[in-house]
Amino acid sequence: MPADDFDLPERDVWTISRLNREVRLLIETGLPALWLEGEISNLARPASGHVYFSLKDEAAQVRCALWRNAALRVAFTPRNGLQVLVRARVSVYEPRGEYQLIIERMEEAGEGALRRRFEELKSRLRAEGLFDEAAKRPLPRLPARIGVITSPSGAAVRDIVHVLARRFPAVPVLVYPVPVQGEGSAARIAAALELASRRAECDVLILARGGGSLEDLWSFNEEVVARAIRACAIPVISGVGHEVDFTIADFAADRRAPTPSGAAEIAVPDAADWLARVDADAGRLRAAMRRLLGSRRERLSWQERRLAIAHPGNRLRQTGQRLDELERRLQGAVSQRLASLRGRYESAARTLHAVSPLATLERGYAIVSRAADGTVLLDPAAVAPGEALEIRLARGRLQARAGAGTQSGPQDRSK
């Protein structure tokens, strides 16, 4: 440069402060407010309440300032490594001549924003009691039919059908086809839940989808799906994503499974286990029946013995035997009585015979009586001559007549 150029009077020399101020004004007036996305790093929180950090991407970074009033409006806590979406004005920090972003608004970007929405909805629905365990419905022990709400072309439905066929092939499966990702999918899922509830074709429903990112699974984090699950009259098992994935549908469902296959495992019992239990129960039942039949058989034998003892025929036989015994005793008593009476009779007969006129006749005496009337004659004077007489001897009778020389009067017994 020529030496005389330094002597020109129109030379305007700027200070550094003026330069930085002019640059700041040019930048602030020349660029509108911008939306930018980047990752937070070099975060600092001084006592003033302002927040300072760098916002970076894969190739560059820029200093940022979040004034205290704006920081109070941020719904989350900024931290290093967090991907954020910011609305900012471009400015210059004059003391150091560094340009920076003045943050007016900050949101979590991508999955971070979704995670925040997830937590907010989960907290609100939990406060309403939508996830209360007391409201959970019990699952049927063995459903007559299982409904599956999922994509008809995804891997989830194939896994579910395979597991159900292996565990309990007798249970039929009804698929309610729905999109499980993309715009409008949440409303379609809620409509399928309402349809299954209204038709009442199944005893339990499986709401399922394969794995994916939080954004992929977002249809199952929508409030409309959670409320449809609780409004459904049929118990719902959720099997969304992988074991580490949790969705709002998992909290609202009556039972959460880690995967679609896990949901199928929960929905039906294992047929092999049931058969083993049935065999064991059948063995116990047979043993119990044998014990019962043995006990009843012993009781029946005891009852038969009691019945035989109390049988009318046996009673009749015993009564007949008693009657025979009484008859024998009666016959014996009669015989003894007759023998006694016979002895008394014979004794009386002997006594009577001793004093009987017949006994006198045996000694040679006779009884004389009128033939006409049988009057025994004691006095010859009572007999008329020629009167017919009957003389009774010891053996036989004689007929006679009184003679004319019959004496009358007493006889002298002394001659």
Structure summary:
The chain has 415 residues and is an alpha/beta fold.
List keywords for this structure.
single chain, 415 residues, alpha/beta, OB fold (Dihydrolipoamide Acetyltransferase, E2P), Rossmann fold, five-stranded mixed β-barrel, five-stranded parallel beta sheet, 11 helices, 13 strands, 43% helix, rod-shaped, disordered C terminus
The radius of gyration is 69 Å
Reported for the largest beta sheet, the result is: 5 strands, mixed, barrel
Query: What's the CATH H-level homologous superfamily of the largest domain?
Result: Succinyl-CoA synthetase domains
- Please list the strands of the largest sheet in the order they lie side by side: 1-2-3-5-4
Low-confidence stretches: 408-415
Helix-and-strand structural type = alpha/beta
* Named CATH topology of the largest domain: Rossmann fold
Residues in β-strands, percent: 15-25%
Order of helices and strands: HEEEHEEHEHEHEHEHEHHHHEEE
Tally the structural domains: 4
Topology summary:
Elements: H1 16-30, E1 34-44, E2 51-56, E3 61-66, H2 68-71, E4 83-93, E5 98-108, H3 111-128, E6 146-150, H4 155-167, E7 173-177, H5 185-199, E8 204-209, H6 223-231, E9 236-240, H7 248-252, E10 255-256, H8 260-267, H9 271-310, H10 312-355, H11 357-362, E11 367-370, E12 388-392, E13 397-401
Parallel strand pairs: 3-5, 6-7, 6-8, 8-9, 9-10
Antiparallel strand pairs: 1-2, 1-4, 2-3, 4-5, 11-12, 12-13
Helix pairs in contact: 4-8, 5-6
